[in-house]
Amino acid sequence: MDIIQSNCKEPRKHICFGEPEGCDLDEMTVDYRSRYLDAIEEGHQALTTYTDFICGAPNKKEGEDIKKYCKNSHQFRMPSSTVYNAYENLKNAGLERYNTFGDIHAAVYEATREVKQFGMLAIYDFTQRYCYSRGIKPDGVYLHAGVATGARELKRMGYSLNIIDLGDRGSMIELSSLPAPIAALGTLHAESFLCIYKDLLAKLAASRSNTNN
Predict the structure, then answer these.
(1) Which of 133, 154, 174 is a domain's end point?
(2) Is residue 7 part of a domain?
(3) How far is it, in rounded angstroms, from Cα 213 to Cα 204?
(4) Pair 154, 87 in one domain
(5) In which residue ranges of the chain is pLDDT below 50?
(6) What is the pLDDT of residues 49-74, one digit of tens each?
(7) What is the pLDDT of residue 213?
(8) Order of strands, edge to edge, in the sheet holding 171-173?
(9) Is residue 91 helix, strand or coil?
(10) What is the pLDDT of residue 11?
(11) What CA–CA distance (Å, rounded) separates 103 from 206?
(12) 71 and 152 part of one domain
Protein backbone atom coordinates (compact mmCIF):
# COMPACT_ATOMS: atom_id res chain seq x y z
CA MET A 1 0.00 0.00 0.00
CA ASP A 2 1.17 3.50 -0.82
CA ILE A 3 2.57 5.12 2.34
CA ILE A 4 0.55 8.29 1.72
CA GLN A 5 -2.64 6.25 1.55
CA SER A 6 -2.15 4.30 4.78
CA ASN A 7 -4.11 6.68 7.02
CA CYS A 8 -6.73 7.73 4.46
CA LYS A 9 -10.37 7.16 5.31
CA GLU A 10 -10.85 6.34 1.65
CA PRO A 11 -8.65 6.49 -1.47
CA ARG A 12 -7.87 10.07 -2.39
CA LYS A 13 -9.84 11.46 -5.31
CA HIS A 14 -7.79 13.55 -7.70
CA ILE A 15 -9.33 16.38 -9.67
CA CYS A 16 -8.12 16.29 -13.25
CA PHE A 17 -6.57 19.68 -13.97
CA GLY A 18 -6.59 19.33 -17.73
CA GLU A 19 -6.54 22.14 -20.26
CA PRO A 20 -9.98 23.77 -20.03
CA GLU A 21 -12.01 24.88 -22.98
CA GLY A 22 -12.84 28.53 -23.60
CA CYS A 23 -10.97 31.64 -24.57
CA ASP A 24 -12.39 34.39 -22.37
CA LEU A 25 -13.18 34.91 -18.69
CA ASP A 26 -16.89 34.15 -19.04
CA GLU A 27 -16.21 30.81 -20.71
CA MET A 28 -13.45 29.96 -18.23
CA THR A 29 -15.70 30.56 -15.23
CA VAL A 30 -18.49 28.48 -16.80
CA ASP A 31 -15.91 25.73 -17.33
CA TYR A 32 -14.78 26.05 -13.70
CA ARG A 33 -18.32 25.75 -12.38
CA SER A 34 -18.97 22.61 -14.42
CA ARG A 35 -15.67 20.85 -13.76
CA TYR A 36 -14.33 21.92 -10.38
CA LEU A 37 -16.78 23.76 -8.13
CA ASP A 38 -18.73 20.77 -6.80
CA ALA A 39 -15.61 18.62 -6.41
CA ILE A 40 -13.85 21.30 -4.37
CA GLU A 41 -16.91 21.79 -2.18
CA GLU A 42 -17.17 18.03 -1.58
CA GLY A 43 -13.48 17.85 -0.77
CA HIS A 44 -13.82 20.55 1.89
CA GLN A 45 -16.93 18.93 3.36
CA ALA A 46 -15.00 15.69 3.94
CA LEU A 47 -12.51 17.44 6.27
CA THR A 48 -13.54 17.42 9.93
CA THR A 49 -10.44 17.41 12.17
CA TYR A 50 -7.36 19.58 12.65
CA THR A 51 -5.26 16.83 11.07
CA ASP A 52 -7.58 16.87 8.04
CA PHE A 53 -7.37 20.65 7.81
CA ILE A 54 -3.56 20.54 7.86
CA CYS A 55 -3.29 17.70 5.33
CA GLY A 56 -6.20 18.59 3.06
CA ALA A 57 -7.46 15.00 3.10
CA PRO A 58 -9.57 12.96 5.55
CA ASN A 59 -7.43 10.91 7.95
CA LYS A 60 -8.50 7.90 10.01
CA LYS A 61 -6.55 9.02 13.07
CA GLU A 62 -6.45 12.47 14.61
CA GLY A 63 -3.26 14.10 15.82
CA GLU A 64 -1.13 11.05 16.49
CA ASP A 65 2.47 11.07 15.29
CA ILE A 66 1.60 8.22 12.96
CA LYS A 67 4.27 8.96 10.31
CA LYS A 68 1.91 8.14 7.45
CA TYR A 69 -0.60 10.95 7.04
CA CYS A 70 -3.01 11.10 4.12
CA LYS A 71 -2.20 14.35 2.29
CA ASN A 72 -3.42 16.23 -0.78
CA SER A 73 -1.26 17.67 -3.54
CA HIS A 74 -0.58 20.99 -1.77
CA GLN A 75 0.79 19.22 1.30
CA PHE A 76 2.18 16.13 -0.43
CA ARG A 77 5.81 16.99 0.39
CA MET A 78 5.14 18.15 3.95
CA PRO A 79 7.08 15.91 6.40
CA SER A 80 5.01 13.97 8.93
CA SER A 81 6.92 15.71 11.72
CA THR A 82 5.68 19.06 10.38
CA VAL A 83 2.08 17.81 10.32
CA TYR A 84 2.37 16.60 13.89
CA ASN A 85 4.09 19.77 15.20
CA ALA A 86 1.55 22.01 13.48
CA TYR A 87 -1.28 19.94 14.96
CA GLU A 88 0.18 20.20 18.47
CA ASN A 89 0.42 24.00 18.15
CA LEU A 90 -2.95 24.54 16.51
CA LYS A 91 -5.06 22.39 18.82
CA ASN A 92 -4.07 24.68 21.71
CA ALA A 93 -4.36 27.97 19.78
CA GLY A 94 -7.95 28.72 20.88
CA LEU A 95 -9.16 29.26 17.32
CA GLU A 96 -12.75 28.79 18.42
CA ARG A 97 -12.57 32.24 20.04
CA TYR A 98 -12.40 33.98 16.67
CA ASN A 99 -15.23 34.52 14.22
CA THR A 100 -13.62 36.18 11.19
CA PHE A 101 -11.31 34.74 8.57
CA GLY A 102 -8.74 37.48 9.09
CA ASP A 103 -8.54 36.94 12.85
CA ILE A 104 -8.28 33.18 12.45
CA HIS A 105 -5.61 33.52 9.76
CA ALA A 106 -3.59 35.76 12.06
CA ALA A 107 -3.97 33.30 14.96
CA VAL A 108 -2.90 30.36 12.78
CA TYR A 109 0.10 32.38 11.60
CA GLU A 110 1.17 33.14 15.16
CA ALA A 111 0.65 29.54 16.30
CA THR A 112 2.70 27.97 13.49
CA ARG A 113 5.22 30.61 12.39
CA GLU A 114 8.08 28.66 14.03
CA VAL A 115 7.00 25.23 12.76
CA LYS A 116 9.61 24.17 10.20
CA GLN A 117 8.34 23.67 6.63
CA PHE A 118 4.89 25.06 7.47
CA GLY A 119 4.86 28.09 5.22
CA MET A 120 2.35 30.71 4.14
CA LEU A 121 0.51 28.38 1.75
CA ALA A 122 0.08 25.78 4.51
CA ILE A 123 -1.11 28.50 6.91
CA TYR A 124 -3.66 29.76 4.39
CA ASP A 125 -4.81 26.25 3.44
CA PHE A 126 -5.41 25.28 7.07
CA THR A 127 -7.27 28.53 7.73
CA GLN A 128 -9.46 28.10 4.66
CA ARG A 129 -10.38 24.51 5.52
CA TYR A 130 -10.97 25.22 9.21
CA CYS A 131 -13.10 28.27 8.42
CA TYR A 132 -15.10 26.33 5.83
CA SER A 133 -16.04 23.84 8.55
CA ARG A 134 -17.41 26.75 10.58
CA GLY A 135 -19.17 28.50 7.72
CA ILE A 136 -16.71 31.41 7.71
CA LYS A 137 -15.79 32.76 4.27
CA PRO A 138 -12.40 34.27 3.38
CA ASP A 139 -12.38 38.07 3.61
CA GLY A 140 -10.53 38.36 0.32
CA VAL A 141 -8.57 36.35 -2.24
CA TYR A 142 -5.22 35.65 -0.63
CA LEU A 143 -2.22 35.86 -2.94
CA HIS A 144 0.08 32.86 -2.76
CA ALA A 145 1.80 30.59 -5.26
CA GLY A 146 -0.39 30.00 -8.33
CA VAL A 147 -3.05 32.48 -7.19
CA ALA A 148 -0.52 35.31 -7.38
CA THR A 149 0.44 34.19 -10.87
CA GLY A 150 -3.19 34.23 -12.01
CA ALA A 151 -3.68 37.70 -10.52
CA ARG A 152 -0.58 38.95 -12.31
CA GLU A 153 -2.05 37.84 -15.63
CA LEU A 154 -5.24 39.78 -14.90
CA LYS A 155 -3.15 42.88 -14.32
CA ARG A 156 -1.43 42.26 -17.66
CA MET A 157 -4.89 42.41 -19.23
CA GLY A 158 -5.41 45.83 -17.71
CA TYR A 159 -7.62 44.98 -14.74
CA SER A 160 -7.08 47.19 -11.70
CA LEU A 161 -6.99 44.99 -8.61
CA ASN A 162 -7.34 46.35 -5.10
CA ILE A 163 -4.52 44.57 -3.27
CA ILE A 164 -4.49 44.81 0.54
CA ASP A 165 -1.17 44.45 2.37
CA LEU A 166 -1.39 42.08 5.34
CA GLY A 167 2.16 42.66 6.54
CA ASP A 168 3.99 39.46 7.47
CA ARG A 169 0.91 37.46 6.42
CA GLY A 170 1.24 38.46 2.78
CA SER A 171 -1.50 40.21 0.81
CA MET A 172 -4.96 39.67 -0.63
CA ILE A 173 -7.22 41.02 -3.36
CA GLU A 174 -10.54 42.61 -2.50
CA LEU A 175 -13.13 40.36 -4.16
CA SER A 176 -15.15 43.22 -5.67
CA SER A 177 -12.11 44.46 -7.62
CA LEU A 178 -11.81 41.22 -9.60
CA PRO A 179 -13.48 40.94 -13.03
CA ALA A 180 -17.20 40.28 -12.54
CA PRO A 181 -17.23 36.65 -13.80
CA ILE A 182 -14.51 35.71 -11.30
CA ALA A 183 -15.90 37.79 -8.42
CA ALA A 184 -19.25 36.01 -8.85
CA LEU A 185 -17.56 32.76 -7.83
CA GLY A 186 -17.00 34.06 -4.28
CA THR A 187 -13.71 34.21 -2.39
CA LEU A 188 -13.10 30.48 -2.01
CA HIS A 189 -13.65 29.66 -5.67
CA ALA A 190 -12.10 32.85 -7.06
CA GLU A 191 -8.89 31.76 -5.31
CA SER A 192 -9.10 28.27 -6.79
CA PHE A 193 -9.97 29.66 -10.23
CA LEU A 194 -6.91 31.94 -10.37
CA CYS A 195 -4.66 29.04 -9.44
CA ILE A 196 -6.16 26.40 -11.73
CA TYR A 197 -6.52 28.70 -14.76
CA LYS A 198 -3.29 30.67 -14.40
CA ASP A 199 -1.75 29.18 -17.55
CA LEU A 200 -4.82 29.85 -19.68
CA LEU A 201 -5.03 33.36 -18.24
CA ALA A 202 -1.43 33.86 -19.35
CA LYS A 203 -2.38 32.79 -22.89
CA LEU A 204 -5.36 35.14 -22.86
CA ALA A 205 -3.19 38.02 -21.61
CA ALA A 206 -0.62 37.32 -24.33
CA SER A 207 -3.28 37.19 -27.06
CA ARG A 208 -4.74 40.50 -25.95
CA SER A 209 -1.28 42.06 -25.88
CA ASN A 210 -0.58 40.86 -29.43
CA THR A 211 -3.94 42.23 -30.60
CA ASN A 212 -3.22 45.65 -29.12
CA ASN A 213 0.28 45.86 -30.66
Answers:
(1) 133
(2) no
(3) 14
(4) no
(5) 1-4
(6) 999 999 999 998 876 656 688 888 77
(7) 52
(8) 141-142, 171-173, 163-165
(9) coil
(10) 54
(11) 38
(12) no
pLDDT at 13: 54
User: Do residues 95 and 145 share a domain?
Assistant: no
Position 8 scores a pLDDT of 78
Residue 113 exposed, middle or buried by CB count within 10 Å (0-12, 13-18, 19+): middle
Q: What pLDDT was estimated at residue 123?
A: 95
CA 34 to the chain's CA centroid:
19
**3-class state of residue 8 by DSSP:** strand
SS3 state of residue 35: helix
Residue 10 pLDDT: 64
**Contact yes or no for 68/57 (Cβ under 8 A):** no
CA-only gyration radius of the chain, Å:
18
CA separation for the pair 100, 139 (Å, rounded) = 8
205 belongs to a structural domain:
yes
- 99, 139 contact by CB (below 8 A): no
Sign of CA dihedral 70, 43, 14, 178: negative
What's the pLDDT score for residue 38?
94
pTM: 0.86
Same domain, 107 and 163: no
Containing domain of residue 71, as a range? 44-133
- Domain count for the chain, please give it: 2
